[in-house]
Amino acid sequence: MNPKVDFYFSKAKKWQEEIVTLRALVLSCGLTEELKWGVPCYTFEKANIVLIHVFKEYCALLFHKGALLKDSEGILIQQTQNVQAARQIRFTHLQEIVEMEAILKAYIYEAIDVEIAGLKVDFKAKDDLVFPEEFINTLAENPDLSVAFEDLTPGRQRAYNLYFSAPKQSKTRTSRIEKSIPRILAGKGLND
Q: How many angstroms separate the Cα of 105 from the Cα of each of 19, 99, 185?
């Protein structure tokens, strides 16, 4: 146990028993406990394997390369259609964790094996991204913006694409695009 992570388990209100149980279970698999992104993250030779996080409706184990796991029990959940690598196993009761202990350990060991084997998630190329019409038109009208956008890393391009594509109304998509133009021209990502 890493003392720097203790606060996460002591501050939890709704899911405290569940995440304390998950912590013990994950640590029993020989992983190193660290604090990343403000949550407990468990690593193998500095590679992220799984993390514990809580939401209003559930707590979960999130496997960083969950898309590469066999999921023989059919319990891995893709959080949204845009998540390419990570997969969750969600819990709403302590008893679920207790009953699934052997299965959860098997998934953790499989995730470690994936890392040892050096397997990589085949992320969609930026060319596979479907940009909203409003953004395509804006790029066509502004060559400097088009060049600046192409110079962004694929991850930054993807983040902008998700941000621009999310609203249902064209007016909102256009507003988001217009507000982001200075950041793109400055070579910055959405969250930089």
A: 15, 12, 47
Flag whether pLDDT at 189 surpasses 70: yes
Question: Where are the domains positioned within the chain?
Answer: 3-116, 126-185
Give 82's pLDDT tier (boundaries 50, 70, 90). low
**Rounded to whole angstroms, how far apart are CA atoms 111 and 58?**
22
pTM across the whole model: 0.67
The 10 Å Cβ neighbour count of residue 48 is: 20
Phi, psi of 145 (to 5 degrees): -65, -40
The string of pLDDT tens digits covering residues 123-149 is: 665 556 778 899 999 989 998 998 999
CB-based burial label for 59 (10 Å; 0-12, 13-18, 19+): buried
Q: Which two tokens stand for residue 23?
A: 């912590």
Fold of 3-116: Aspartate Aminotransferase, domain 1 (3.90.1150)
User: For residue 52, what are the contacts with CB-CB under 8 A and spacing of at least 6?
Assistant: 8, 19, 22, 23, 26, 39, 40, 42, 59, 60, 61, 62
